[in-house]
Amino acid sequence: MRDYLFISDYRQNETCRESFNQLAMQVFQLDFRKWYNQGFWTDDYICYSYMDKDRIIANASINKMVVTAYGKEYKALQIGTVMTHPDYRQQGLSAKLMHHIIDQYEREYDFLYLFANDTVLDFYPKFGFEKVQESRFFLNTAELTKHPRQKSALRKLDGSNEADLALMQEFAHERIPVSTRLGIKNNPSLLMFYFLLAFPDEVYYVEEEDVIVLFSQTDRHLNIFDIISKRPFDVEQVVSHLIHADTNTIQFHFIPDNDNQNIVSARITEPHDTLFVRPFLFDDQQPILFPLTSHA
């Protein structure tokens, strides 16, 4: 391997930051600029990279998390944005970055985790990560539509609007975990990424419930990606403001805090992203689903 420069924690370095973004756009079609130009790249997100001259050629990032699960809190580290420029692959750069991150953080955190696509499923077990099967959660709306409730007007939020952006920031900083079964706390930076970049057209404020909901409706299927609230909420009450007469099923992209027998779970057999954990600390008899908006 050629002698490349190893660098990290360069969010204040404009040249490195822009080069990182160019690589992310090339590999993942992700443009971070709107996120970091507005000050949402914080110390919770740190890049570890190799540089050839003035260009970032490989990267693995860490995102510091607090994971709440079944009455316990865990200090967790999520690894993400693992990428190598096509001209520099097959040189072991990603492996070196992974070893560096594990060596630096494994004694400081309760566990490390990441999400991987199906092209690299054999890569992460080499570093002691265990593949974990997550679950999906669905609700048939038949019972809800039998007892319709007064709906609150939904206000679509626009990240380019100053007042809407301030509301998003307020909720990002003050939110409670979306679920007591498995949730994330104290990570406003990542949530702002989802507000501004991942779901810019799916952010709505439900005034009556005082919650922000990320959701989309496709045909008769409602996807609820996240419910952001500053206090405990009734998930069915929130859902009642989102469904239409033709809504048939709802999929929650988190574990809903509700004992409604109509909410069913099923193991994900063909995930878009596969969860890997090191070490695995959870009860494998309990369903696992990290909230979608916790994926870094």
From TrEMBL:
<dbReference type="GO" id="GO:0016747">
    <property type="term" value="F:acyltransferase activity, transferring groups other than amino-acyl groups"/>
</dbReference>
<keyword id="KW-0012">Acyltransferase</keyword>
<dbReference type="InterPro" id="IPR016181">
    <property type="entry name" value="Acyl_CoA_acyltransferase"/>
</dbReference>
<dbReference type="InterPro" id="IPR000182">
    <property type="entry name" value="GNAT_dom"/>
</dbReference>
<feature type="domain" description="N-acetyltransferase">
    <location>
        <begin position="8"/>
        <end position="150"/>
    </location>
</feature>
<dbReference type="InterPro" id="IPR050680">
    <property type="entry name" value="YpeA/RimI_acetyltransf"/>
</dbReference>
<protein>
    <submittedName>
        <fullName>Acetyltransferase (GNAT) domain-containing protein</fullName>
    </submittedName>
</protein>
<keyword id="KW-0808">Transferase</keyword>
<dbReference type="Pfam" id="PF13527">
    <property type="entry name" value="Acetyltransf_9"/>
</dbReference>
